[in-house]
Design a protein that fits this description.
29% of the residues lie in helices and 16% in strands. It is an alpha/beta fold. The protein is globular and about 65 Å long.
Length: 336
């Protein structure tokens, strides 16, 4: 990917010097600020393609194709092809190994990303077991929600601390359990689950422009999985992963949440980092997701080796891994 070639190809005006231009960057007019930006305040790093506006910290990102689409009106698919950022999706299975090697050796590899932005959890996100705060002071609906999801009250303190769970009673994320997503110890983004069954929008994610990485590019519980073990489960959601991971970790079982079945390019890089850390890899998706499971298996095996596909058993009386009881989860192993 050559930033200047792309800008020139689409006749996008830019400046390579001036008060607003950092070393190794070029600047363009911020398409989100629009006509209010008279001095090209949005900088693009020529090496990484990362971009950000000096005037508004919300106008930033790590994917050049998103900026190109905004500047030119191209669709996301067209912009991906123009920048090469969608190339991995078109790679045939036989070429996947070479593609992954290119990912891990290139300048965009995770280990070399030292200039990514930093975000923090909002001050309105409360800790259920904060020092000096009695547990009963936490809003009862959040404790009740954890109970309803199969986490008994006597487990709450350890659960909340292990996964850094928060809750919110005001603002955009009001009445939601906050589930932070970390990578290499750094906060990437978060998702917020409504505690009400009849909520029109069950999950609400931090906006992409405010995140270090958007949710679909992350693996939930990645850092814990990097510690290794005997069996690694791939499940769909964060609460699914949390249920298996929390109650089976003493048996050498860990779990990660994928958030989507496409296995995005950045997720593939993370999965590749897990190679060799577990004896077995098992896909356990929701009830009725046979085709998705087989497709995911085909995507994971070039990265990890052999991957098993398992299904929810009728006797479990559960539609997804998050519905399993602690006792059922503790019995999960490589033989299910």
């Amino acid at each position: 990917m050559n930033v200047l070639e792309i800008l020139n190809r689409y006749n996008i005006d830019y400046v390579d010097r001036g008060n607003n231009v950092a070393k190794g960057n070029v600047n363009v007019q911020c398409p989100w600020c629009g006509e209010d930006d008279h001095s090209q305040h949005l900088g693009i790093n020529l090496e990484t393609g990362m971009w950000g506006c000096w005037r508004n910290v919300k106008h930033r990102g790590r994917k050049l194709y998103r900026l190109l689409a905004k500047l030119t009106g191209l669709s996301s698919a067209e912009a991906r092809r123009a920048t090469g950022e969608g190339a991995l999706r078109a790679v045939q299975q036989g070429d996947m190994e070479r593609a992954v090697q290119g990912l891990t050796e290139g300048p965009e590899s995770i280990a070399e990303r030292t200039d990514s932005p930093v975000i923090q959890l909002y001050p309105t996100f409360r800790e259920m077991y904060a020092p000096g705060v009695h547990p009963m002071q936490a809003e009862s609906r959040f404790r009740n929600y954890l109970v309803a999801r199969g986490f008994p009250r006597h487990n709450h303190k350890r659960l909340v601390h292990q996964y850094d769970l928060r809750y919110c009673v005001a603002g955009r994320f009001s009445d939601r359990l906050i589930i932070p997503i970390y990578e290499n110890g750094k906060l990437m983004t978060w998702i917020a689950r409504s505690v009400y069954k009849d909520a029109s929008l069950r999950y609400l994610a931090l906006e992409e422009e405010e995140s270090v990485k958007q949710v679909k590019d992350c693996l939930y519980n990645y850092d814990a999985a990097m510690e290794g073990g005997d069996v690694l489960f791939f499940v769909e959601g964060a609460l699914d992963a949390m249920k298996i991971d929390f109650y089976s970790q003493r048996n050498g079982v860990r779990a990660v949440g994928l958030f989507n079945m496409n296995l995005e390019a950045e997720q593939q890089e993370l999965v590749n980092n897990l190679h060799g850390r577990f004896l077995k890899h098992i896909i356990l998706l929701d009830e009725g997701q046979l085709s998705q499971s087989l497709d995911l298996q085909a995507r994971l095996e070039p990265l990890l080796g052999h991957v098993l596909v398992r299904f929810m058993k009728p006797e479990w009386n559960a539609k997804d891994p998050g519905d399993l009881t602690p006792r059922q989860v503790r019995r999960l192993d490589g033989r299910i």
